[in-house]
Write a structure and sequence with these properties.
disordered C terminus, 3 strands, 3 domains, Growth Hormone, Chain: A, 18 helices
């Protein structure tokens, strides 16, 4: 689309605006105020112009890929790090737990902060903090310093994840929102799946500090791009709720701790105390948020049926994903005696199929209901997981590969439409809350999935991997059922709107 450069001074404000004037729509876009109109315009700009849109989405892609991949990378490196730092495995797990806990307790507070001070500021601050903390991780020479750096890195990752979807909503025109969310879904799914492979490759040629050092140049590039390309959105007038932030952090921190304790067979008394504290904090938080006009825990959005059903679908699907991704390496190594390199190759069809399906699903999401696309995708995901549970006694690469591809394609077909339904059902001024809830649902599902795998290994050690795949298939099927309920809600809303119309005679 052709644009010509314009410069004007408004009489009412005497402020000069530099930007582009769209040759067809006569709308102005200003780099200094990308989501706001220059003063003499009356129609809001829908998305960023090209090529600025490409640079902005590149910034989002780099940041999200680093934040998601770093969790998977650290899992693979734990034994090596524990050996080099002369500590045992029980203490080294805090390298992973500290990162995940920091993200979980700060996602919703930071998404609320993004509504107030701007998504751009929160994202860039998180990206800068993540990059600096990566340097701290690479220079760490003891477990306490590394664990502390990982906690700081987790807060940076939360800044990235809390508002990235809200930024995508600002970057892309409304008619192309599904396409933008499809790209984001590809990044999240592929980064999570190929993280272990990248970690193994880095450890093959270097020491573990390089796992974190590689983030530094990528982070610097992403910050530089973000300063130039990320848009400024309109800000909310309300103030930040510090008490709500503390309650939210306590509730989700205790919830994650309780789930993890249950998965690892913690003593009943300790587990009961953690659950009681979680319920108490959660009750106080919900009661408090119900009285607020703009709640930090988005209870106002959860009242929207499409939004709440999309959240439920997301949680169930990520439970299934984590159950499969954690148990499959054990199945392939212990049952079928594949090497670590072969396992990496066998899992590769999953992210490739996801990467191919998600952009297609994003385009389809702009035209077809998420209930249909999500239901079909999750049914295929469930079928793929079930077929992996029924692998033959001596599977070859093709036997495993097509099953992985089916599961990955199904997951990719579901994710973009689900994210679009969730974000699209929220008011634009609540994009930050919706984005934070999307990330919270994903992490909560992954945490539950990992805890279920740990519990199965403790209770049915000889058949844990196969049982985990059966359970994963069941969760995927449950997610498909929840997804299709959105069609019922859509039909009910359509019928209600038709019944509200009053037909008058001519």
């Amino acid at each position: 689309m052709k644009r010509r450069c314009v410069r004007w001074v408004t009489r009412s404000t005497s402020r000069r605006c530099d930007g582009w004037l769209d040759a067809h729509s006569k709308q102005a876009y200003s780099p200094a105020r990308p989501r706001e109109l220059c003063p003499d315009m009356s129609t809001p700009i829908d998305g960023l112009p090209i090529p600025l849109r490409y640079w902005a989405i590149a910034t989002i892609t780099l940041g999200v890929a680093m934040a998601v991949m770093d969790s998977a990378i650290a899992n693979v490196a734990l034994p090596t790090i524990a050996r080099d730092l002369h500590t045992n495995s029980a203490f080294s797990i805090w390298i992973v737990n500290g990162y995940q806990l920091a993200i979980m307790i700060s996602l919703l507070p930071l998404s609320s902060l993004g509504d107030i001070i701007g998504y751009r500021r929160v994202y860039l601050a998180g990206l800068l903090l993540f990059t600096v903390a990566s340097l701290g991780c690479a220079l760490s020479d003891s477990l306490p310093t590394l664990a502390l750096a990982r906690v700081v890195q987790g807060f940076g990752a939360a800044g990235i994840m809390s508002v990235n979807i809200a930024l995508v909503r600002v970057i892309y025109p409304h008619r192309m929102l599904g396409r933008g969310l499809g790209i984001n879904a590809v990044v999240v799914a592929v980064a999570a799946a190929i993280g272990p492979t990248i970690a193994s490759a880095i450890l093959l040629f270097g020491r573990w500090p390089w796992l974190f050092a590689v983030n530094i140049p990528i982070g610097i590039v992403a910050v530089a791009l973000g300063l130039r390309a990320l848009p400024r959105a309109a800000r909310a007038p309300h103030s930040f709720d510090f008490a709500g932030a503390a309650l939210s952090a306590a509730t989700f921190g205790l919830l994650i701790g309780s789930i993890d304790a249950a998965g690892h067979g913690e003593q009943v008394g300790i587990l009961a105390a953690e659950l009681a504290a979680t319920i108490l904090c959660g009750y106080v938080l919900v009661r408090r948020e119900l009285t607020r006009a703009v709640p930090m825990l988005p209870v106002d959005l959860l009242r929207i049926p499409i939004f709440s059903l999309s959240v439920g679908t997301s949680i169930c699907s990520f439970v299934a994903q984590m159950l499969a991704l954690v148990s499959l390496p054990f199945l392939l190594q212990n049952e079928f005696h594949y090497s670590a390199v072969q396992i990496g190759l066998l899992i590769t069809p999953w992210p490739i199929a996801t990467g191919l399906a998600a952009p297609i699903a994003g385009r389809l999401a702009d035209r077809y209901p998420a209930g249909i696309l999500g239901g079909v995708g999750l049914a295929a995901f469930s079928a793929g997981l079930l077929s992996l549970a029924f692998l033959p006694a001596h599977p070859d690469f093709f036997d495993v590969g097509w099953r992985m591809a089916l599961a990955g394609a199904g997951f990719g077909l579901f994710q973009s439409p689900n994210n679009r339904a969730m974000i699209g059902s929220a008011p634009r001024e609540r994009s930050g809350g919706a984005s934070g809830m999307l990330g919270t649902a994903r992490l909560l599902g992954q945490t539950i999935g990992a805890a279920l795998v740990a519990s199965l290994f403790g209770r049915v050690p000889h058949h844990a991997t196969t049982v985990a795949l059966f359970v994963a298939s069941g969760f995927a099927l449950l997610a498909a059922c929840v997804s299709t309920l959105r069609l019922v809600e859509r039909t009910a809303r359509s019928q209600a709107s038709q019944s509200d119309r009053v037909v008058t005679p001519d």
